Amino acid sequence: MTTVAAYAAPAAKAPLERTTIERRAVGEYDVLIDIKFAGICHSDIHQVNEGWGEAIFPMVPGHEIAGVVSEVGSGVTRFEVGDRVGVGCMVDSCRECDNCRAGLEQYCAEGAVMTYNGIGKDGRPTHGGYSEKIVVDENYVVRIPDGLSLDVAAPLLCAGITLYSPLKHWNAGPGKKVAIVGLGGLGHMGVKIAHALGAEVTVLSQTLRKKDDGLKLGADHYYATGDPATFEALAGTFDLIVSTVSAPLDLGAYLSLLKTDGALVNVGAPEEPVSLNLFSVINDRKTLAGSMIGGIAETQEMLDFCAEHGFGAEIELIRADQINEAYERVLASDVRYRFVIDTATI
Question: What is the pLDDT of residues 194-216, one digit of tens each?
Answer without folding.
Answer: 999 999 999 999 999 999 999 99
